Request: fold
Amino acid sequence: MTQARWQRRGLGLALALLGALPGLQPRPARADAAPFTLQSALKLPDWINLQVAFSGEPLFNPVGGLTATGAWVQQGSIDLNISTGLSRDQQQWRELDHWGVNFNLGHTTGNQLYNSEIGAVFPLQQVAYPPGFWLSEASLERNHGAGWLGLKAGILSMNPDFIQVPILNLYVHSSLNNTLNIVNTDLPINPYASPGAVVTLRPSDEFKIRYGVFDIGSTYSVAQALGVQPNLAEGIYGSAQVLQLDYSSTRLAPDANLPMKVCNQTYGLVRNHPHCERPTTVSNQLPGGLVRVGGITSTDDATGEGVYGSVTLRSGLPIGLDERVWFGGAYSPNRSVDFSPTFVGGGMVVQGVVRHRPLDLLVMGIGRGGFSNEAPPFLTSSYEGMAELGYRVMINESLQLQPTVQWIFNPSGADQPVPGILAAGLRIDLNF
Reply:
């Protein structure tokens, strides 16, 4: 099937969904209503977990850039997990319940070069990857569960085990979403993958230590296995090693797995307070508190090394029903290898800023990627910045729509100066 037909199908699906949602003002999903899942529809046994996801990101820039244009990118994925422990309380796991098999297959299509066409260095869409089918994971895993030791080996991506934190998944711009703009050559960052192994130590409920090793020399060939033409350098050999420390605690933010306590007033839901006469709960859409720091090194001079870190916590500002702020950054000392050796960013996500929309999220973020003039493509500019404002509409458990506006300041993807770029669009997420 041609790329154009895939795009038309994605656009048709999005329009059909939009047409089926009058006013885009549906009520939040009832707490007692069981959401549709493939698990129940296919009557799968409880030792199999199957998830299918779709994300579409149409975007256009009416102002600024080299030209006023637009692009659609989309990504579909299938996740399969097999384990006897999936339906059992982790406190009751036997050794066999710790073990399982994981599989992830994705398909990406659309215009991955939109950022270059408008004069930006970094993609404005988080799924702007070379088109085709991607094998991102095929692994055997021992989940630590309530214990202290976790193991994983097979075809793996570095994230989400490393670098990535949950709050970043709410953004559209690639530099704010996912991996703190780490762009080291041939690192297996999703959807890229390579043979690797990960060891997780969990000395307490609040701390995790992870160590991973990846064969970066195979990243190119794994991407090519299903026909993708990757944007990677060939002839890279050696391995990459990652060491990471996680600290998660309710002292930073409430547990993301617990319902959010709110107050039911006659004019709508408000933030919980000591004098609330009608307390209630809603589903928590915000991540828990997390501090994540780590470092990367490799045996190949073409990949280099670096450190990264991020913090997610509750600020305490009286906005919406609850909120999270985050700060993050990455640094590589090898400026001759990494064309973007520095990145800093931060933002805020607020749940329930509209009183009768308690599950919706207001998403704000800003970031700056610094450039080296010693590594290809030898950019003459010193940085490119990005700011994003979005509103995530929780239609139901399976469908979310997120209008987004981005401002790209000091776009640096062309030989001549480029006017600042104002881009707007929509993120469509379907999950079953």
About this structure: Residues 35-431 form a domain with the Porin fold (CATH 2.40.160.180). The chain has one domain: 35-431. The first strand starts at residue 48 and ends at 63. DSSP finds five helices and 19 strands in the chain.
